[in-house]
Amino acid sequence: xxxxxxxxxxxxxxxxxxxxxxxxxxxxxxxxxxxxxxxxxxxxxxxxxxxxxxxxxxxxx
Length: 61
Ligand code: SF4
Description:
The chain has helices at residues 15-19, 42-51, and strands at residues 3-6, 24-26, 30-32, 57-60.
């Protein structure tokens, strides 16, 4: 996996941060951390994409 980002519409439910805290940080909105180990955590990111209730997590494989 090369890149992950959040589209507009996050409802800050915290699910992605719970699954992959090294990647996602939820404050007033969900952010991808600057130093996120995207390729190492690809499987967890895929899980977060599936679990996001509003489908706003996007990734470039
Ligand atoms: S799982 Fe989706 S809605 Fe929930 S905090 Fe993450 S990006 Fe936002």
